[in-house]
Amino acid sequence: MKGKFGTVVILVVLFGVVASGCIGGQETPETKRTTVELSGDFVKDAVAIGKVLEENGISEVKFSAWGSGDPNSVMRVHGIVEAARRINKIWEENGINVKIIITDKHYAAAFQDAYQEYLSKQPLGQAGDFFVNSYAFLPTLADEGYILEITEYANAYKSVIEDFYPSLIEASKFDGKLYGLPQDTEARPLYIRRDVAAKIGFNLEGIEEKVKNGEFTWGDVYQWAKKAKGSGVAEWGLIHRKGSAHPDLIQFIFAFGGKLYNEESKKLVVDVPAIYKWFYVEWKFAQDGLLPGDIMSWDWAKQIHPAIVEGRTLFDIGGTWYWTEWQTKDYYGKEGTPRPIKPEEVQKWFAYTLFPAGEKGLQPVTLSQPFVWMINSKAGQQNPKYEELEEIYHELAFLMIIKASDPDINAIHSVISAHLPVRKAAAELISDEKWLNDLKSLNLDLDQEVKDNLKDIVATTVHPINAKFLADVSYMLEYTKFAPAHPKYPALADIFKEALDKVLRGDMTPEEGVDYIIQKVNADPELAENVEVIGEIPKDWQFP
Amino acid sequence: MKGEKLRSLSFFLSPMIAMVGIFYLIPLVFTVYISFTKMRNWNTEKYLSEIVGLYNYQRLFHMFQHDPMIRAILLTTVVFVGITLIINVFGGLLLALGTFFINESSASSIRLLWLLPRMSPIAVYSLVWYYFFHGSDIGTLNSILLKLGVVSEPIPWGQITPWGVWSIIIFVNGLVGVSFGMIVFTSALNQIPKELVIAARVDGASAWQISRKILIPMLKWHFLYVLTWQFLSLLTTYPHLFLLVEWDLVNRDYGTTLALYVFNTAFGRGEQDQGLAAAAAVLLSIIGIMGGYVTLKVLQFERMIHEPRGDVE
Question: What is the least distance, in Å, from the CA of A335 to any CA of chain B?
Fold first, then answer.
């Protein structure tokens, strides 16, 4: 009995061994995929990525989105939230049981502060997976390995990439490689008060063309500003932005035919003749009382904007985003309690042109500082199996910014924040009246959370007048310049600002201001190494 | 016996020694090391092992030699540290003595009032003074003076160089710093036996005489501590100054001390140059140590720590 039982046990064990050999020995265990080849077909790619995640047991992908800027630019974060919803919808329709969740929606007012925070937290693995900020910071972030290079991914999405304005794609590159997708851009018009102009006989008919053709220059701006002030119609002839001379006031350098960067030597440029002319123009304005000498210490909300919207100046060097900012902020205090101004008032009071040429024979300009969607080089790190699935998380992050660049998302951002669209398809949407009405009533396929966040901004900013404004200023992008995306540029821009402040206050002459810049540059060996000084102060130049 | 004493001393002192080691000595050594590297943008992987020798120090000295702002900055540092230190130390002493002679509930209210600047968030506190001293008619001070007819044009206080600027930065920082001395001196005064004061009162001594003959001599230790601490603090402090300069309330040249200059150069221009900042921190530490040493010498620290003379039979 005992022997029989033993034989049965041995036979069962042997059968088990043989059987397991037959079952397992014929095939190797299936290896799970950890990457997909992007095809350029968005739905197909999203599904493929979703399946890979599902195969690897991932049911939830967590991402965080960091944005910054003016109060109306919240789509810099909500664009990512909406992109997540759209990909989730594709997965749902294709029976894929994975969900993207945006865990952290971080929005800072000052984009420089947001950059500093990203810079310090990225090495610790605590920065956002998606980061929207100025193109100016892209080279440093790319050079340090803090953001993801997306050149190869983008090659599969040529049709989308080609819809972006080429100059903006160029601004998203470092060393010839693509590190982000443009999110928005803007122009910096010269605003002219129509009511003030009418009182001094300044005919604004065709002024945009005259500026475009270089007929109306800064000499003319000076003459009209003088007339406005002299006749007592306006308190000031000109008001402009304050703070770092980047990027607003350096338009003068380009308007006087100067340059800021040498492509060959890869160095920043202190273009002495152009900077001297810039300083001289501003100094002359300030000396003649047409521009406040202490403008650099004026308060934005209590002085600069009220002076413009209340018609206390004829000219203003501003930005496209002013257009809706004036409609959402209480700057107009002429009737007692300050209030925002209505779209009809903005349209009635303000004409807008390119930044005029410095003098006859030169070109008008504008200046853009595109914002860029960037992906953290550690994107997806808060998710399971990151080491193993790093590539798939990165591919998914790329699809997210492709989705966040959808024409309607880009168009919504442009309309509510008065930035310019970065894609041709978005520009077309903005000029579509039906779409605008749908946006006004929020009758769009958008995430409920996004709708809730946009409700108040949409109510005050979506208006045919604002859409027309965006369409009207789009041509300015043909004239746009970019400040150099060089790590040392902010330091140089700061020095420009310090020098200009001294010149405006009358503490320095324009010549002394230029000398001060050169001294400051040479005081720091590292800056001096990255900057070349060209040209001399012109001897017989006159203004106006 | 000696070994036992050492053991018990080690036991009781070890938490403090560990704290000093972890939070002071190691960071100090690390700072000195970083000052010899190319460390920037928080990229430890890339730069922490890239030794550049004295490059950061050379760059710093080059700036000190050639920057057109440097004369104003050094002058500002001396004036700001000197005058604010006097205000902080003597203001604190005066407040402590003043509140010593009045009833406790009024004294507490006064002390709380003087603590407000220190308790307020720096940005909020600085914003208050930004609007108060603003150089246009939106400035509180200017609008009061204009309404009273004292001035016909707003005065750009923060742009009157150098004393207008210095007055603002000294005033704003002095208000914050004075409460530190006040707390230390108040707690010291409360430790002085009341009998001494009562006896002096009985003998007809005035508050001034009691302060001069009894209280102040007994505060020498605390005076030394507050003076040294505040000196080091003022030498390296810049948060309030940073905001007032950043917001363009005060002239940049005469509103910037050495500490702020270094901060702006290393961190304020789009770059995060930890190597340069570490070199500057080392230099400031050396200046601080020298200044502290001089303070201790002048106030005869050694004499204070002599053991009291006992009667020798």
Answer: 18
